[in-house]
Structures are given as C-alpha cells and as structure tokens.
C-alpha cells in the first residue's frame, strides 16, 4: 500500500485525532459525495431535544474509518492473525458506509421507502461519481469489493463484521459521538478498551473473556442512548413533523397543485424518482430552504407545518398503546373541530429496536452471525455473551416498542380530548 508523504490529521471530539496516511483515503474524503455529508445532520431532528446534537454525517464517517484503523493497529500490537491485504478495503468501507445518506438522517428513508445503503452502493458503483473514480484507481473492481462489504455479501466475513455487526465500528463511533454531542453521559463507554479486547478469530470478531464487563457497559450505553436520545419524545416529535411536512408537499405534487418551486431535485425526490445526480444535490439546507419558502405559500396546511418545523412549534404527545386505536376516529373528530386536518395533525408514531439480537428463534441456538462471543484462549472455548451476563439478558429481552400519539397543543387542551383519554 502506497503511503502519502505527509500525515493528515483531523481534530475530533471522540478520538482526539483522526489520522490519514493513505492518499486514496485522503482523495475519497475530498470527493464531492463525501463533502456532501458535512451538510447532513447525523441525528436528524434530535437537535430539537438536544441542541448540541447537530453534528454531521461527515464527522461520523471519519470516526468509523478511525475506529477501524485503530482496530487493525490493536490486532498488530497483540500479534493476532489479521489479513493485512484487506486493510485498505476495511477502512474505506467504514469511511463510505453512509455516503448515500438522505437529508435529516433516517426520516426521509421511511417517507420514500428507500434505504440509504442502496444509495451508498449506487454512489460507489456509479461510473459518474468521484468516489467511484477514486476507487477504480486502486485496481479495477475495487469499487465492487467496497460495495459488497457494505451490502454484507463480501466473501470475507471478518471484513464485513468490522463495518456491520454487534460490535462494529459504525455503532462504536455513533454511540460515543452522539453521547458526547448531546451530553448524555451514560451513553459513553470505554472505547479504547473495547478495541483492546476484540480479537479476529477465523471469520469473526470475538471478545477476550476478560472483556465481558466492557461489553456489558457498551450494550447498556446503547440501551440508554435509544431511550434517552433516539426515542426521546421531542426527538420523535421533530421527525414526525418533518415527515408530515414532506407528506403534505408530496400530496400537493400528486394532486397537481405543486408547492412553490424550491429545488427541482426535491420535487423529483418527493415523486419517488430522483436520478443519482439529483439525489446528490439534496442536503439539509435543501429542506430548510423549501420550508422557508413553503411557510409563505398558498397551501395553509403546508405553510403551517413548515412554520412549525422552522420555529420548533412541535406537536405534543401522549402514550398511545395499540389498544387505543379504536379511539383514533374520535380523536380525529376533535382535531377537525379544532380546525386541523386529521391526516396531518393526528399522527401515531411507533418506534423500537432490539438492543442485542442473538437468537434465530426462541428455541434455537444463538445465531453465530449476530451473537457476541467471548473467547477463552486457555481452554479454546467460545461462550455467547448473554449466557453469562444478567444485564445483557435483561436488555436482550426488552423488545417493546414506543408508541405515541402526536397532536397540536390546541387539541391537547380541548376538554373532549381529555375525556377520550380519561375513558381510554
């Protein structure tokens, strides 16, 4: 691997410094497609709840690269068998794993039913992108290798597990980064020690037996971050409002009443058929600009929703278990009576995740692909981590979703709404 003459360094709040020695990685960082990530928030609308949480996808992508670089260094220090011919592939796959992210993180993915991984791979494979040209300069077909790592189809499973797994570089960076940015201290964990206790063994990453408590702290940090940050009711209120604004704009386009022209690519995106070139012109500022224009437009619903998002006049929420769904039509009547269209001002939001997923089924053995394995070198023995950890058992079985009803303030203070909640 050729090395650049000069070491490049980024100052970073998570890793202290991020080091770049490989000129190919430096060239990738400076592509148009990677620089676009500076203009996309890592945490979407979470800044409504945590004002510090407005860091970019770009800083996270650099962080994932750095975690993989540190992992490979640690493997060397510990004299572990690591296939060095894949160093560059692993680090570049980490750097580019989010290159196709939509504006405002995940909210637009759900709206358009398009996952960012699909766009990442399209950028990596797309002959017209700067990223593709840099990758193909390494050797013909290198871009395809990177695409396969991100798609989890690459033949070497060990390389895939560094980018996509229970203890992958992506999760290790975003949990620390999001925790530091938002100020949620118990989302932090000992990243340096996690890297130190990881060992490449055959086709997977395992954890040295002595690293059990470090892994417990990491999984608990992940659990707390979901509950305190990603599922925070105000974070979700921002995402709900963002999605609702765009759904209204899309409906107007389908009805032939185009909202005021903002960015042509945004219209193509809302219609569900952007080209790759159009997609790459979209970022958070595209949406902010659209909302700023729409708030003064003819459509009262779109104008109000856009203004609410820009001015942080979010909907209020109340817990809404599925058993209450038969009452939604009654709530809709109250919403309409208050002067709002229930299609846009009465939203049930459901979100949830699995904090540690290791079983293929309740009666099946641990799934070797998704489990975290402790490795006892002295006895050459592997143990699935939850079988020896009560804290991990507890969160592994916490699968309940968060379900909330979001309506405007005026509906909340209406006595009829209060009565529906009372009778529920």
Written account of the structure:
This protein is an alpha+beta fold and 424 residues long. Among the domains are: 210 residues, Orthogonal Bundle (Hypothetical protein af1432); 82 residues, Growth Hormone, Chain: A, CATH 1.20.1250. Helices cover 50% and strands 10% of the residues. The protein contains 22 helices and nine strands. The strands form three sheets. It has a four-stranded mixed sheet. A three-stranded antiparallel sheet has the order 5-9-6. α4 runs parallel beside α9 and α6 packs antiparallel against α8. The chain is globular and about 70 Å long. About 2% of the residues have low confidence.
Rounded mean pLDDT is 91
| Total count of strands | 9
CATH fold-type name of the domain at 8-217: Hypothetical protein af1432
| Portion in helices | 40-55%
Low-confidence stretches are: 359-366
- What share of residues are in beta strands? 5-15%
Structural class label: alpha+beta
């Amino acid at each position: 691997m050729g090395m650049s003459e000069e070491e490049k360094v980024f100052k970073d709040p998570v890793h202290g410094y991020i080091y770049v020695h490989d000129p190919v990685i430096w060239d990738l960082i400076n592509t148009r497609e990677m620089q676009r990530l500076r203009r996309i928030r890592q945490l979407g609308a979470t800044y409504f709840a945590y004002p510090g949480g407005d860091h970019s996808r770009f800083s996270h992508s650099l962080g994932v690269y750095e975690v993989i670089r540190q992992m490979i260094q640690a493997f060397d220090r510990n004299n572990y068998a690591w296939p060095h011919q894949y160093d560059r592939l692993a680090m570049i796959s980490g750097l580019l794993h989010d290159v196709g992210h939509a504006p405002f993180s995940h909210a637009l993915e759900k709206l358009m039913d398009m996952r960012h991984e699909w766009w990442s791979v399209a950028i990596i494979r797309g002959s017209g992108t700067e990223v593709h040209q840099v990758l193909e300069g390494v050797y013909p077909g290198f871009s395809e290798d990177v695409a396969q790592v991100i798609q989890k189809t690459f033949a070497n499973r060990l390389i895939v597990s560094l980018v996509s797994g229970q203890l992958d570089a992506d999760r290790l960076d975003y949990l620390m980064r999001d925790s530091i940015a938002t100020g949620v201290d118990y989302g932090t964990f000992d990243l340096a020690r996690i890297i130190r206790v990881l060992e490449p063994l055959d086709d997977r990453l395992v954890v040295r037996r002595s690293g059990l408590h470090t892994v417990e702290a990491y999984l608990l940090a992940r659990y707390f971050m979901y509950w305190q940050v990603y599922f925070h009711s105000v974070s979700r209120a921002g995402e709900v409002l963002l999605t609702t604004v765009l759904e209204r704009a899309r409906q107007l386009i389908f009805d032939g009443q185009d909202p005021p022209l903002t960015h042509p690519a945004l219209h193509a995106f809302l219609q569900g058929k952007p080209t790759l070139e159009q997609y790459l012109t979209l970022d958070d500022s595209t949406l902010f600009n659209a909302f700023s224009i729409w708030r003064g437009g003819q459509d009262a619903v779109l104008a109000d929703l856009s203004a609410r998002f820009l001015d942080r006049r979010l909907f209020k929420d109340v817990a809404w278990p599925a058993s209450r769904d038969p009452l939604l039509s009654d709530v809709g009547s109250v919403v309409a009576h208050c002067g709002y269209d229930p299609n846009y001002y009465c939203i049930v939001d459901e979100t949830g995740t699995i904090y540690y997923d290791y079983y293929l089924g309740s009666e099946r053995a641990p799934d070797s692909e998704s489990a975290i394995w402790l490795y006892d070198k002295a006895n050459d023995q592997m143990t699935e981590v939850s079988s020896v950890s009560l804290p991990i058992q507890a969160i592994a079985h916490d699968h309940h979703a968060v379900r909330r009803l979001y309506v405007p303030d005026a509906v909340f203070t209406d006595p009829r709404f209060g009565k529906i909640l009372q009778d529920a």
